[in-house]
Amino acid sequence: MKGNMMIFASLCLLLFCMVPVNSKPIRSTPQVANPIALDMAVNSVDDMNFGCTETMMDKVTKEYFQKERAAWQMDTDVNRCIEKNSKAKALTRYHIEAICAYTSDRVYKSFNEEVRTKRGDYGSSFQFHSLHFLLTSAIQISNNNYYCQTVYRRTRVEFTGEVNQIIRFGQFASSSLKTNLVNFGKKTCFKIETCSGAFLGNYSVFSHEAEVLIPPYEMFNITEKITDQSEVKMQGLEDCEVVYVLKSVGGKSNLNCKVVNLMRVQ
């Protein structure tokens, strides 16, 4: 499928388908000096593989997985996570390895940096085709009914955005069903209605985090920007400096099935 793919909330047939309490925060947004503008993340690797999942799975398992797996930096925690979930029925072992690697935090930073910025390299020198596909597929399988839920995301970074602006995170955004995972920060917080994100549960290395993983292609409307501390407290995020309230408005994929389409023209 070529061109942009727009998906709105009414298209429920689409297979659209978090922030630790231990001493070391994981999967947190890296601190930066300047504010980050919330936008549509136009340079994102946002392939949702709609209409080409089986072909892409074959490409991943036969080519990308073995070539790219070393970059996942598997360690003891990851291997323990994989074995813990070895009898999972809904997901394949490939999916489980991807989730365990991502939630261990060893590859999170470099992976999401590429997902946010390497649109032009996707299908060629992008380093994480297999991890990107398997996380996307796992999210879609785990939330195949397009179930909407309210989740929370904390950061140490100042984000800027305006009410009624449509945005994407443009990366795999870790969020949580919990409001009190303060180790992730309080500079900018998000209260998010996601309809594409999936609850990872016991698949995560840190299952106590109650993580919901949001894919890069999901779009959100900023419905509120809350700075008044009494109103912030009402959101359950009383220590946050600012809270953006986001509502899912579907998804947008600029790279839908790009790898498969490249295969077809070769």
Task: Please describe what this structure looks like.
With 266 residues, the chain is an alpha+beta fold. Helices cover 28% and strands 20% of the residues. It is built from 7 helices and 11 strands. The N terminus is likely disordered. It catalyses: L-arginyl-[protein] + NAD(+) = N(omega)-(ADP-D-ribosyl)-L-arginyl-[protein] + nicotinamide + H(+).
Question: Ranges with pLDDT <50 over ≥5 residues?
Answer: 1-26
Structural class: alpha+beta
Strand content: 15-25%
Count of individual beta strands: 11
Question: Which word captures the global form?
Answer: globular
The major beta sheet can be summarized as: 6 strands, mixed
The span between the termini is: 16 Å
Which series of helices and strands comes N to C? EEHHHHHEEEEEEEEHEH
Radius of gyration: 18 Å
Give the fraction of residues assigned to helices.
Answer: 25-40%
Query: Helical region count?
Result: 7
